[in-house]
Amino acid sequence: MPELIEQSKIISANGCGLPQLHKQRQDNCGLYSHIRGIPTSYGDASSLTAGVRSFVEEAVALCQPDQVHICDGSEQENKMLIKSLLESGTIVPLPKYDNCWLARTNPGDVARVESKTFICTEERSETIPTPKDGVKGTLGNWISPVDMEAAIQARFPGCMKGRTMYVVPFSMGPVGSPLSKIGIEVTDSAYVVASMRIMTRMGAAVLQQLAKKEEFVRALHCVGTPANGVVEMPSWPCDPERTIILHKPAENLIVSYGSGYGGNSLLGKKCFALRIGSTIAKREGWLAEHMLILGITNPKGVKKYITAAFPSACGKTNLAMLNPSLANYKVECVGDDIAWMKFDSQGVLRAINPENGFFGVAPGTSVETNPIAMSTVFKDTIFTNVASTSDGGVYWEGMESSLAPNVQITDWLGKPWSKESGKPAAHPNSRFCTPAAQCPIIDSAWEDPAGVPISAMLFGGRRPAGVPLIYQARDWTHGVFIGAAMRSEATAAAEHKGKVIMHDPFAMRPFFGYNFGHYVAHWLSMEKRGQVPKIFHVNWFRKSDEGKFMWPGYGENSRVLEWILRRVSEEPCYENSAIGLIPADGELNVAGMKEKIDMKQLFSLPKDFWTQEVKDIRTYFESQVGADLPASIYAELEKLEKRVADL
Ligand code: GTP
Ligand code: SPV
Ligand code: MN
What we know:
Elements: H1 4-14, E1 34-35, E2 38-42, H2 50-63, E3 67-70, H3 75-87, E4 91-93, E5 101-103, E6 117-120, H4 124-127, E7 142-143, H5 145-155, E8 164-172, E9 181-187, H6 190-199, E10 201-202, H7 204-212, E11 217-222, E12 244-248, E13 253-257, H8 262-265, H9 268-284, E14 287-289, E15 292-297, E16 303-309, H10 316-320, E17 330-335, E18 339-343, E19 349-352, E20 357-361, H11 371-374, E21 382-384, E22 387-389, E23 394-395, E24 409-410, E25 416-417, E26 431-435, E27 452-460, E28 470-472, H12 476-484, E29 487-489, E30 501-503, H13 516-525, E31 534-538, H14 558-568, E32 574-576, E33 581-583, H15 599-602, H16 607-625, H17 631-645
Parallel strand pairs: 2-3, 3-8, 5-21, 6-7, 6-12, 9-11, 11-13, 16-27, 27-31
Antiparallel strand pairs: 1-2, 4-5, 8-9, 8-10, 12-13, 14-18, 15-16, 15-17, 18-19, 19-27, 20-26, 21-26, 22-23, 22-24, 24-25, 28-31, 29-30, 32-33
Helix pairs in contact: 1-2, 3-6, 12-17, 16-17
Guanosine-5'-triphosphate binds next to α10 and β20.
């Protein structure tokens, strides 16, 4: 981002949505104990670099907080934050565990809001492909610079009156790694600060790094107040009606208003690491993806790293922490949600996890399904919207077996709960926010500034019908096609209703920072830049006619990873199928499985299903992406259509 310093001048000059202000003189003692006349209640304003200072000054003038707190990331600061969160009733203690807290949000603020998330560019076509006439685009939302400015002016002036503005310096990736990037989030939510401290490298070290090289993404966040001035739930202020999440890639700027939840407010995550990140990656020739990163060692001691892109709530955290059922395999975790990948000077694709923690789906996490997560989250963790127990612990769907007898359960809304309630105790999108370093299988190279070398990439989603457990792409272009054609059942991670099968290309549909057609072209171009990994598609979620999962999943997925590793080392353990390479008869190791697996059904390719599938993919490509989709992807679709016709 070498142009950023230049941009910071431009931003100061033209306001970029924040009013233009005059530089404030430092006060007499030489310390910046005021910022534009507003006292700093914590931290040292003189530690701010010039660009950060001018961003904060603009934010102060716009939002008019009562005081400014400059975060240093210290233990002492965290204690203060927790104390204030307890006082406001935002969190309650969980005395059963060590330094764990439970936040209950306003029930209107429980997930990302894709419909209120916008990318701002001069031209609409830079942000989204042009859908066919009369078709509503589903590949992101565009906003013009004028409308973005108006949206800010309608919400932000004076929005922090009576509140504290926190200045959060954070690094995505290890501080100082050549693959890392820095952000400054300005927020009025102590919950966000405490969560950013877990999810990113946050505090004084980041400011010191900025002093060496001043490049950073600006992120402004406010929980907001409803237009009628009535704060429904003082412990969780928000403004769901007017929530808006804005990104301006040309200025590396994020502006988020109205929600305190997850990806809406922890701006380092989806807003920076994926939306803004993907635009930086396009410019600089690398990839910013919604992918887990894991290391897997086979019984011979050979270790490979794999990434996998599954849509939200489709199994990334679970796979990243896999406890292999196959003997003598070892999985280690580098990251569970986001991968930044770049070719090194040898042409090897290397990945870092830009995050520092896991913001994981709680329901379904259990000692049976993800014992590693269960041994990570009961220390130094902030839980959000899970249920609580009368013995000071947490509870969610899936934890039945670890529930102590005679405990009373209080659901995520704070109401008494029993199995007979007929509603889930924890919100389906309830989460744990926990430090990655605590994960017992965290990879020894997870903070390696050079990243880890990637041998294979997986795409996958929730496909109850028609899609087999595993297949391999024939080559890179075919693999990119598979990513572009991905579909999955909707989950609770966003505002979608029901179990509809949605297109979710590359598991990035809610996270593209620029036109999806151009994104596919960028992916295709990676093949010219270095050695590209092999690409696979997996589906743990195929169901039988009786509606049961045909594959047990979780630890048993190690069997699929074993086949992938064998393919990475070019073992001829495959056969051709209409959709790609699948395990040859007997080559997927199912020896010793508890369940009897109907392999024929699991790998069947019903002609009627695939005929409809290729039709749907064509309709989707033609109506949503049109001419922006590279011709070679249409050519892949044609090849698939021909093979499906021969089924
Ligand atoms: P985000 O954090 O939203 O990006 O989600 P994620 O992709 O990390 O999903 P996660 O691993 O948290 O899984 C979401 C849900 O899928 C949980 O309820 C899991 O129990 C369930 N799940 C994960 N892996 C499997 C599997 O192999 N089989 C089955 N049947 N369910 C799974
Ligand atoms: C997702 O929805 O993919 C998440 C959770 O990882 S959030 O941080 O809310 O985006
Ligand atoms: Mn995610």
